[in-house]
Amino acid sequence: MTTTTPPTGTTGSRPADRPPQRPVRAAADELVDVSFTVNGTPVSIRVPARMHLADALRTLLGLTGTHLGCEHGVCGMCTVLIDGDAARSCLVFAVQAEGTDVVTVEGLGTRERQHPLQQAFSHHHGLQCGFCTPGFLLSSYDLLVHAEGPLDPQTLPEEMSGVICRCTGYRGILAAVSDVAEAHPEGVPEPMNCAPRTLVGRGGGMSRSALAEAPAEEVAEEAPTALTRPTGTPTITVTVTRQLTSPVEDVWAVMDDVDRLARCLPGAELTADLGGDRYRGRAKVALGPVRLAFEGLAQITGRDADDHRLALLAQGADAGGNRTAAEVGLRAVALLDGGTELRADAAVFLSGRIAQFGRALAGDVSQRLFEQFADAVDETARTGTAPEVGSGPSALAIGVQAVLAAVRRRARAARRALKGRLARRRKD
Ligand code: FES
Ligand code: FES
Description:
The structure is a single chain. This protein is an alpha+beta fold. The protein folds into two domains: 205 residues, Roll (Ubiquitin-like (UB roll)), CATH 3.10.20.30; 187 residues, Alpha-D-Glucose-1,6-Bisphosphate, Chain A, domain 4 (2-Layer Sandwich), CATH 3.30.530. Helices cover 30% and strands 25% of the residues. A seven-stranded antiparallel sheet has the order 8-14-13-12-11-10-9. A five-stranded mixed sheet has the order 4-3-7-5-6, with helices on both faces. Strand 10 and strand 11 form a beta hairpin. Helix 8 packs across helix 10 and helix 10 crosses helix 11. The longest helix is centred in the C-terminal third of the chain and has 33 residues.
């Protein structure tokens, strides 16, 4: 297989100052190292020579904003910017990206700081299911950057015809692009979310971010700086109870000591006491091959020593755009046998890639986290000593257990369905 220059979109051209790309000769499945910049972050990954750029972005770098429709260069869903030009990433081998500067929809803006194009698409309702939207955003960005003079409403539909939308009308999309062109006659603003960050790889040993060891302050940039109570419907709500052997007063002593309480939570670590019952911390969670490191804030929002109740609010974000917030109520109730029932009610809000995990799996992980947490609280109440930071139960193991539990549950459901079908057939 021999590959050279990536194909670009219909507008724009490759910068003249970039040296010609060296040809790469490799067997289709041979692993090749490739280094390029994605949304401002230098990355080095090892890819099979036959892997296209869209797959590398999605599966190795976790940038799932680039969508795949036809994988034949027809639909334009997979459009990204390569060296400032729109390109169909399903038609570019990842190895062809060597030395280039790639911008995906994640680099265009964030939820809190949207690019004018994103705002205009939202304002004009230029999307329905949103599957084509990343392609349209980057294609229209390319169009506006390279337009010579004002856009012609007569030719705009044709100019935008490189991306296909299957479910919404094109009117909103065209209106959005026209608005942005009118609002920025001096040129559309550059992508607003291109800065070095840690990318979350998903390909096991195949993926490596050059900024995996990014300075803490760069990673922490994504972390929330103020706590806000989540609104809307939670992604999942969980209620779990666990019987502890320790008496309720000892359990409450742990609940009332935030430092010891945090140490009982698998993968969690308090990093700063901000005063006023507010804390900064971090937590690591693993779901199958996806490992996430959240930075965030937590606040004790209610404390009732007589009733042994604690309420807290926590919010976190990782550098890959995943966000989580949780409102948690903890209550310890004395049991007749001298032990304690610890109950947790949690409303969990997820956004970003982690929101794609099924509710059942997220529920399983929460359940197992709580079980481990409750056992650590029991142990701490009994011995008076909390686990060392980082020595708690492995969040990775919890994620794996939850995945296995979900698989077993599905297998049981499938067996039951099969038995039912066989029984019905026998009856017939
Ligand atoms: S997925 Fe690339 S053009 Fe359709
Ligand atoms: S909004 Fe659904 S495909 Fe375009």
